[in-house]
Design goal:
The protein has one helix at residues 72-78; strands spanning 12-16, 22-29, 33-39, 42-48, 57-63, 67-68, 91-103, 106-115, 118-133, 139-150, 169-183. By secondary structure, the chain is mainly beta. It has one domain (7-183): Lipocalin (Beta Barrel), CATH 2.40.128.
């Protein structure tokens, strides 16, 4: 990847390429290890204003039913009302409300994250990973970022006490974003 020295070259509308992006999460399990997962179905768009990065916008929609932790039983439990309640809340959304360029390659995107019908403002730091033209002539940009939330803030409160102390699932969940987006004509 090549880092753009002139952000104005990036100005335009982009669609997140779901087959080359990952939106995932990490949570502690049984207080001794971490479980990683991802949403296999999502879509999103980014409108980059390279001349005025503060005007950049982004929105993402995740399909809760597409959750994948590599364990079908756990995935099934995560879609119940104990966790994400896919029947009543089939999507998780993020809609940006502001953007800030921190330095040449780092940005902060603030927006409304809605999980299980509860909306809270979060700020996600993103690193610009570069721009490239793929073999099909499409301009691609890459961004990576992460943010830690407390799942209880979104009504995701189920847990089980452990015999040895502690709980089965941590309250803190790290959201992970590895984004490849394709510029639209």
């Amino acid at each position: 990847m090549t880092t753009a020295t002139n952000l104005s070259e990036l100005t335009g509308d982009y669609v997140i390429d779901g087959s080359h992006s990952r939106i995932g999460f990490v949570a502690r399990h049984a207080m001794v290890t971490k479980v990683r997962g991802a949403f296999n179905e999502f879509d999103g768009k980014i409108s980059i204003d390279g001349d005025k990065p503060e005007n950049t916008t982004a929105q993402v929609t995740l399909k809760v039913a597409s959750i994948d932790t590599r364990n079908a039983q756990r995935d099934g439990h995560l879609t119940t009302n104990d966790f994400l309640d896919v029947e009543n809340h089939p999507e998780i959304t993020f809609v940006s409300t502001s953007a800030k360029q921190v330095d040449e390659d780092n940005f902060e995107i603030t927006g409304d994250l809605t999980i299980k019908g509860i909306t809270r403002s979060i700020t996600i730091p993103f690193a610009f990973e570069g721009v490239a033209v793929d073999p099909y002539g499409q301009t691609r940009v890459g961004f990576e970022g992460s943010h830690t939330i407390n799942r209880k803030d979104y009504g995701v409160t189920w847990n089980a006490a452990l015999e040895t102390g502690g709980v089965l699932v941590s309250e803190k969940v790290v959201l992970e974003f590895e984004i490849s987006a394709v510029k639209q004509a």
